[in-house]
Write a structure and sequence with these properties.
Layout lengths: L2 E2 L2 H21 L5 E7 L3 H17 L2 E7 L5 H13 L5 E4 L9 H7 L11 H9 L7 H12 L8 E5 L6 H10 L3 E5 L6 H6 L3 E4 L17 E4 L3 E3 L2 E3 L4 H4 L5 E2 L6 H21 L5
Parallel strand pairs: 1-11, 2-3, 2-4, 5-6, 5-7, 7-8, 8-11
Antiparallel strand pairs: 9-10
Bound molecules: NADP nicotinamide-adenine-dinucleotide phosphate (NAP).
Length: about 280
């Protein structure tokens, strides 16, 4: 019997934990706030930003909206980030990606104060993950770990294969699995015989961006399969995993939609609550 890992359920539980933490932070005299920076008017980004602001409101986090026109200069974006860094009512800064191509994403992300980097993408925070130090974690891979925890899936000593090596998902995912004592292989577009490498895995995390690439041929019977992919196709939103083909052989699998997606937003909320808690001197219970 295959377990369908329900991201909505785990996201709800995560947001309840965040709400409890926010309440304790408020009791300590700090009102958690998130600055949301959106450059341009891409409809998908706009809808993501609205959902993130709604998530924050659900748990009692204020959001401060900053909309900049698509032709914003790097100087103007830098000035806004500096102002948010200096503003003590802002505990987290969300810079919605992607930025218009004339802007330098790397330098903007690095300009955000590491303590307010609730996306967990600042070089210092990725470095803290490498060093095993606490700090904001990259939301999507951290959300995957929360799902595994919620379903009691212990990766210690297990073989994990992460497909994809981006700084947003693949690399931090591999480090988080390693932190939990999995034996981790990172695959990418130059990996030779990817299906054979994946068949070695007890846990597969697919973060590729290729619709339904991972078929049954990649999966050892009984493996856990986590699908990070979001691909818009003529058939609607699909993952990197061919769910219908793989789910009968996996022991547990995430669907798309309703899997990792809701977790990314829940972890953003949790990172913001934790950033405010650090300022208030409140520890997560
Ligand atoms: P990315 O930066 O484009 O990275 C994709 C990775 O996949 C790269 O490392 C690439 O290898 C590898 N790859 C591409 N084709 C491959 C192939 N045929 N075989 C093996 N590896 C291959 O993408 P990303 O930002 O990590 O995102 C990956 C997917 O996750 C996308 O569908 C994205 O929409 C989704 N995503 C979802 C969430 C969520 O909240 N659920 C969050 C973030 C991203 P090279 O490095 O060699 O090019």
């Amino acid at each position: 019997m295959t377990t369908i890992i329900d991201g909505q359920v785990v996201a709800r539980a995560t947001k309840e934990r965040a709400a409890a933490l926010v309440a304790r932070v408020k009791d300590a005299g700090v009102d958690p706030g998130l600055a949301v920076v959106l450059v341009g008017d891409d409809p998908a980004s706009l809808s993501y930003v609205r959902m993130k602001e709604r998530d924050c409101a659900d748990v009692g986090i204020r959001s401060f909206d900053h909309r900049l026109p698509a032709d914003t200069t790097q100087d103007a974006l830098d000035a806004l980030i500096d102002a948010c860094n200096a503003d003590s009512s802002v505990h987290g800064i969300l810079l919605q990606l992607p930025l218009p191509s004339h802007l330098d994403e790397e330098s903007a992300l690095a300009r955000i104060s590491a303590a307010k980097d609730v996306d967990g993408l600042h070089p210092e925070n990725l470095g803290r993950l490498v060093r095993g130090l606490p700090g904001p974690r990259a939301c999507t891979p951290w959300g995957v770990m929360a799902m595994l925890d919620h379903y009691g899936i212990d990766v210690s000593g297990k073989r994990a294969v992460v497909i994809g090596r981006s700084s947003i998902v693949g690399k931090p995912q591999a480090l988080m699995l390693l932190e939990r004592n999995a034996t981790v292989t990172i695959c990418h577009s130059r990996t030779v015989d990817l299906p054979a490498v994946c068949r070695e895995a007890d846990v597969i995390v697919a973060a590729v961006g290729r619709a339904k690439m991972v078929t049954r041929e990649y999966v050892r019977p009984g493996a856990v399969v986590i699908d990070v992919g979001i691909n818009r196709t003529e058939d609607g939103l699909v993952g990197d995993v061919d769910f219908a083909d793989v789910s009968p052989v996996a022991s547990a699998i995430t669907p798309v939609p309703g899997g990792v997606g809701p977790m990314t937003r829940a972890m953003l909320v949790m990172n913001t609550a934790l950033a405010a808690a650090r300022v208030a001197g409140v520890e997560e219970a």
